[in-house]
Specification:
There is one protein chain. The chain has 356 residues and is an alpha/beta fold. It is 48% helix and 15% strand. The protein is built from 14 helices and 13 strands. The strands form 3 sheets. A 6-stranded mixed beta sheet has the order 5-4-1-6-8-7, with helices on both faces. Strands 9-10-13-12-11 form a 5-stranded antiparallel beta sheet. A two-stranded antiparallel sheet has the order 2-3.
Amino acid sequence: MQNALASAGYPSRVLVACSGGPDSLALAAVAAYFARRGHVDGHPVSVAGVVVDHQLQAGSAEVAARTASVLRELGLSPVEVRTVEVASTGFGPEAAARDARHAALDSAADHLGCDAILLGHTLDDQAEQVLLGLARGSGTRSLAGMRPARGRLLRPFLGLRREETLEICEVEELDPWHDPSNADPAFARSRTRVEVMPVLEEKLGPGVAESLARTAAILQQDADFLEDLANETYLSLVQRVDDGAWLPEDAVRELPAALRFRVIAKAAADVGGQQPGYGRLQAAEALLRRQGSAGPVELPGHVSVYRLSLSDLEQEGPVSAGASSAFPAGAAADGVPRLAPRCGKLVFRHQKPSQQ
């Protein structure tokens, strides 16, 4: 906890997110120690608490109220209970609950003037996250797992095992609530926790969770480097216009594959789309190997990407008659005027969904 707050610049007011489970209750107990002291390394600190009631289980309001009472007894002040509605989304109930929870945490932190939000994720949670990413065929960013710090979210317990948070609760004489959904096989994370991880530990020996967490830490550095490099590359290539953006295909084609796919994904996001899956990115990238104008390829978020060949641009044929005037020579991201490249273009446009 001390290291996490130090690395965050010693925020003077922090918010503990607590469900009442062993991990977050142990987190609250440790944070309460610094609240009672009133400082971290001589820097003043006060600690508030928030309990989010997702209303997904019978009796959730009672659990939230009881947890809030425990937080107050520990010395956190003030303590709020935030009730949320978990909207149905296409990304599953776990993702929907997480989005609702994070919105509530952000709102509570703003209301209470907190510079940091403490979350109780442990090394076991990190290992499960990496395994789920592997199973879903995710990229480097997903396999990098959860970050110790992201914005004002801090995860001080990413180096602790779940057994250690249980021990903290026992020493502090706290009676944690055990969420039944954590053992519900309907959820992929629960199956990973209850069924997959124990088998891996049994068959491969102890230390699997630590190895997976270590993998996440290594990949975080790689992901950050590639993300920064891809962002610099994209900004050096993109030409933006009123109804979209385009990239010079020769420059994109010459990029290493790891950068090429990321640059295409950034272009899609830049015009209002969502992060494409690997299959959609492959389809968009394949346009660079087509002869003549090609596409469109549809990407998530109502984005269309297509290739305009140099011959079509020069001849102002039927495909490019409107496009050549819509995509003239423009300014780079640094504001310096550039002439249009003597090559084809990879064009990205956002299509408004039709009204039914």
